[in-house]
Backbone:
């Protein structure tokens, strides 16, 4: 059983500080929806408003079509997984998991049975009698999920639940979470500042900056067609150039930059359309930067190799371009061609216009 | 770690001079101020009450007559048991239990509010208004209670004016003033351990329980109280011990017909001139209180180490 969640022009203020501004979006029942944004942008605030710990200063929150105003957290069909999990340390694992049932007055035998079922679901069979403190980080993570699921929520809210785990475990838990979501079929609202997490797991992602939703879309549209400079710079890695638009044709822009004329695509969902004469940011992904062939003229950049890093499957090669914002980077598959280049060499690079985007100048994500 | 290792570490860390000073100070404190006086008291309680000239003489032998006296009374009396002293003893313990529970009931919500709900300025103001009254000395506070609970006191005046009662209520005679005074005297000793314990509880746990549908009382029963148990036990222990051993408040606020057990002890030492009997009574009170606390800790499954946390 899942429910859709609708935020209608929700604003949340703390005194005069606006932590969320005019958030208006719909999350379909049964989908995996992520809020992605840097620390302090208001993600937790929105989640707390949905779960009922905070009252929106303006706007409405509807779950399954019902206005939630006046319903406390204990009466909403949501369950929240806290940033620090907040498991009950003085209870055993199974008591933790079935706390929601205990509240409903379910008898002990039945609770025990339900706990065993849920332990099965989270792949921790037979661990019910341990204390929470005896579990590893990843196991605790899963107990928190089971505890929330036991409440049979229609919407599960997750506040950066993987942030405390190491990389390996985090990657494993991503898959696991997605699998659990598909098995139980309820709506998941997931918060993270890790774009990899948001892109791999979600059906839709909302990118936030300073309390405002900058863009909502599926992973590919966020990554390939960012709507603002902020989204482009926050999601994924970028080589950044600045310049002035000198011509627009067929959804492509010509921009005069310090490194010469660059041609870039205008994303269809750009928030602010570009016109000739505007200042623009040009974003290009390291993985689509290539060494130029002799006949390639468009977006050809001359650069000096300054450094290279070996990552096994990939090489990260860094270049200095006179007039560029910063050192630019190329991620290339380790195809055995590394012997063909040397640090200090001057080379010609090319960035494919279709894989390069031009957006109106605006705030960028902090490095 | 062996004892020798411990001392080697201790001396290395603190240097010779400081180490010797610390050892001497702690040793002096424990031995001369705690152990030695109590040993003398215990020794005393097993001796006859002799005039100074006969001390150390042939009559100065050990006896348990003073302990027997509390139970059976004087041989001349008609009763087979010492009903007066025994009933005072039991009433003192019972009243101390009552005062402790009363204090707990009042202090828990205050401590919870201070530790989890109130923020910044408000909380500081509340703590201050709890502490400042204790700058007034104990005797003065007790007399003040006597005044407000007296038959012309403002409580009676107010109740009369409101028409709730027709005649002044005898708060002093019924010991209500005494219980209130005792309860108030040790409020801080209850609040601070509770506050410390509750303060360290992660707010998210309370919110998590609420999010899982729990009503407020279950949050307290299942999350806050179990977590605060060490603080609750340490507060209750202190309040109980000090109430049972209080002297000034019962002297000033007690009803005319009801003694506190400490008053009997005081009488034996003072007007009664029988130090051995006073010692025996004091030791009985002390050991009963300790036994009672240990029993309660057993019942509520608290470890001694937790209380000292
Ligand atoms: N109770 C509060 N009172 C005042 N300001 C608050 C309160 N809670 C949050 N804020 C402010 O609102 C902003 C958003 O906070 P929020 O916790 O939602 O950030 P977040 O996106 O979850 O960040 P993080 O990724 O670090 O958890 C922050 O600037 C924070 O200081
Ligand atoms: Mg947060």
Residues:
């Amino acid at each position: 059983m899942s429910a859709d969640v609708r935020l209608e022009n929700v604003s949340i203020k703390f005194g005069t500080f606006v932590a969320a501004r005019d958030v208006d979006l719909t999350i379909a029942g049964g989908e995996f929806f992520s809020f992605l944004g840097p620390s302090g942008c208001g993600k937790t605030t929105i989640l707390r408003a949905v779960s009922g710990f905070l009252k929106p200063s303006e706007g409405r929150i509807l779950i399954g079509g019902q206005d939630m105003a006046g319903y406390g957290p204990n009466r909403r069909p949501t369950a929240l997984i806290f940033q620090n999990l907040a498991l009950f340390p003085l209870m055993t694992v199974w008591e933790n998991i079935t706390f929601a049932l205990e509240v409903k007055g379910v008898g002990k035998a039945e609770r025990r049975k339900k706990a065993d079922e849920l332990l099965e679901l989270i792949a921790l069979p037979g661990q019910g009698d341990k204390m929470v403190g005896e579990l590893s980080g990843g196991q605790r993570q899963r107990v928190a999920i089971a505890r929330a699921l036991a409440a049979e929520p229609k919407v599960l809210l997750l506040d950066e639940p993987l942030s405390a785990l190491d990389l390996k475990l985090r990657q494993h838990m991503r898959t696991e979470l997605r699998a659990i979501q598909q098995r139980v079929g309820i709506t998941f609202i997931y918060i993270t500042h890790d774009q990899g997490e948001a892109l791999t797991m979600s059906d839709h992602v909302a990118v936030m900056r300073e309390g405002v939703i900058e863009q909502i879309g599926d992973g590919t549209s966020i990554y390939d067609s960012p709507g603002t400079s902020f989204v482009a710079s926050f999601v994924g890695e970028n080589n950044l150039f600045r310049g002035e638009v000198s011509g627009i044709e067929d959804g492509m822009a010509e921009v005069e930059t310090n490194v010469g004329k660059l041609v870039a695509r205008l994303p269809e969902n750009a928030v602010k359309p570009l016109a000739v004469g505007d200042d623009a940011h040009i974003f290009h992904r390291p993985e689509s930067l290539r060494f130029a062939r002799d006949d390639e003229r468009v977006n050809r950049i001359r650069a000096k190799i300054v450094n290279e890093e070996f990552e096994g499957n990939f090489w990260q090669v860094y270049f200095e371009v006179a007039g560029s914002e910063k050192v630019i980077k190329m991620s290339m598959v380790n195809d055995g061609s590394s012997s063909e280049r040397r640090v200090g060499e001057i080379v010609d690079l090319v960035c494919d216009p279709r894989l390069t985007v031009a957006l109106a100048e605006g705030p960028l994500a902090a490095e | 770690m062996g004892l020798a290792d411990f001392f080697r570490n201790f001396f290395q860390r603190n240097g010779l001079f400081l180490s010797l000073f610390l050892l001497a100070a702690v040793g002096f404190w424990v031995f001369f101020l705690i152990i030695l006086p109590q040993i003398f008291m215990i020794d005393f309680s097993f001796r006859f009450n002799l005039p100074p000239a006969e001390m150390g003489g042939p009559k100065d032998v050990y006896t348990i007559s003073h302990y027997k006296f509390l139970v059976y009374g004087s041989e001349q009396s008609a009763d087979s048991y010492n009903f007066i002293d025994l009933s005072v003893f039991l009433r003192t313990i019972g009243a101390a239990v009552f005062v402790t529970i009363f204090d707990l009931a009042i202090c828990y919500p205050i401590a919870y509010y201070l530790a989890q709900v109130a923020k910044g300025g408000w909380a500081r103001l509340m703590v201050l208004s709890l502490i400042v009254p204790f700058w007034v000395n104990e005797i003065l506070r007790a007399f003040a209670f006597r005044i407000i609970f007296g038959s012309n006191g403002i409580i009676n005046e107010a109740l009369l004016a409101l028409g709730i009662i027709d005649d002044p209520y005898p708060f002093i005679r019924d010991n209500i003033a005494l219980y209130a005074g005792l309860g108030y005297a040790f409020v801080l000793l209850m609040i601070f351990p509770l506050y410390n314990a509750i303060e360290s509880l992660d707010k998210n746990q309370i919110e998590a329980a609420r999010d899982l549908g729990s009503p407020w009382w279950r949050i307290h029963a299942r999350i806050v109280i179990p977590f605060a148990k060490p603080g609750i036990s340490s507060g209750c222990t202190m309040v109980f011990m000090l109430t049972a051993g209080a002297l000034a408040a019962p002297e000033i606020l007690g009803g005319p017909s009801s003694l506190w057990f400490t008053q009997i002890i005081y009488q034996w030492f003072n007007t009664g001139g029988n130090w051995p009997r006073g010692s025996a009574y004091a030791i009985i009170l002390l050991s009963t209180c300790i036994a009672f606390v240990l029993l309660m800790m057993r019942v509520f499954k608290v470890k001694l180490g937790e209380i000292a946390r």
Observations:
- The pocket of magnesium ion (ligand 2) is lined by residues A 43-44, 83, 159 (CB under 6 Å).
- Residues 85-263 of chain B form a domain with the MetI-like fold fold (CATH 1.10.3720.10).
- DSSP finds 14 helices and no strands in chain B.
- The longest helix of chain B spans residues 3-45.
